[in-house]
Amino acid sequence: MKVTEVPAIAGAFLFEPTPFTDERGFFCRTFDSDAVRSVGLDPGAFVQDSLSRSVRGVVRGMHLRSGEGEAKLVRCSYGRIFDVVVDLRPGSPTYLGRATFELSGDTQATLYVPAGCAHGFQALTETADTSYRIDREHDPSEDVTIAFDDPGLAVPWPLPVTVTSERDRKAPGLAEVLRTLEVRTP
Question: Which residue in 17, 113, 151, 157 has the most C-beta neighbors within 10 A?
Answer without folding.
Answer: 113
